[in-house]
Amino acid sequence: MAKLTKRDYREIATGLAFLLPNLLGFLSFTLIPLVISLFMAFTDWNLEMHNLFQDNELHAVGLDNFIRLFSDPDFFTYLGNTLFLMMGIPFGVAGSLGAALLLNNDFRGGRTRQVYGIVIVTVVLTVSCAALVLTGMGAVAMTMLVCGTVGVVLLGGSIGGQTVYRTLFYFPSFTAGVATYILWKKLYSPENGPINNALQPVLTAITPWFSGLTPRMAMFAAAAAMLLMVLVYLVALWRAVAAWRNGELGCYSLMMAVLLLSLPLLLCQHWSRLSWGGALGATGVVLGMLVLARGLYIGRDFTALRDYGMGNAVVLDGLVMIMLFALLGTANVITIIPEAAASDAGFSAPEWLSDYYWAKPAIMIMGFWGALGSKNMLLYLAGLSGVSRELYEAADIDGASPLQRFWNVTWPQLANVTFFILVMAVMHGLQGGFEMARTMTKGGPAGSTTTLAYYIYTEGFTTGNLGYASAVAWTLFALVFSVTLFNWKFGNKYTNE
Question: Lower Cβ count inside 10 Å, N or C end of the chain?
């Protein structure tokens, strides 16, 4: 081994000098705080008792903070809020993919097409402004601003093509998160927000359509939605069992599918507004277990590895689970329609962030808007540019339809991109929610938008209980680490199949 010379030492020292600011930043703001927080998780450290003015003795409490955590109902409530908001992830990913597919085309065309585009945009803007005035919004500044912004986007796209559209779609991502949250808070204002100003005339117009709906009729409609929920559950479970018998799912994958599909029906006991909703959900689960028992009794035609098909089980059955939750929510909404239609005010626009039941959906709508032009869209655009044109030509020769081209060519080629996006989205979903809750709702109303990240902040810096907050933080880390390992083990295998 050659001996290092003075010049080599000098070059190493120069390199370390350039790396020193980054290393010091990592030590000061990452590694040392992590070690201190791990130490605090096993102590009774409290800002009110342990500070410069009150030098109380610090005591080690062992696992008491973690025991308190798992016996604290607030922790599970805020964990539920975090998981509920994460149900918007598939819609955000789908929105990013849809935007990327649209922006992958060239909209500019020739001069004649540009002229037609300008004429169409002008007509659309004129009709839109007239409709807004007639419905009661009036030609207010916000209305003109919205219409003008839409006009600029459409005109710019018709003239500049996909480059302009891509820039305009991604432009909101440069805006700071706090500024975006403040903007959406104004949009969601119940009294004078643009969303309710546009929505209220529509609700007022359709109120007479439901004035004749009696509570009995609403009960039958809600029951139909609940029965449809049970039917979808049984069909999805039957298909999962059939896939297990055919060797398309392993035993662990089947267990995951059963868990995801059964969760909405098990929660009917607490979430359904119908008095017999819980009993119907329990009955559906019993029927599902009979379907599962029948499949297990018949046995398998083909064997497979225990974790085979885990990606399909999580993604596809997870989407069905969200559909079941949507049907449950639809049934609940139907039950309150007669009372709302019979009131003097008729249907009224939601109070959004001020309403316990609307706060989380409002946040999810905002998240979907943010996902359309996010970095995920750019990743999908990069993935689409790497799909071989020869595959599309082969599909065209075989007579594939546009849907078949997407499902059999585009979607499989984007598997690696989708896997990366899902892993990052799940990690961000479990850790996110602090800026949104702090800026828009303060965690309310009644804790409905408090996520685990905001809970750590309130426990650590509002109540001053740094020991307990550190225990929650490390529990969240363990959760994120476990979910990431699960995604990496099964999702990575799924993308390579």
Answer: N
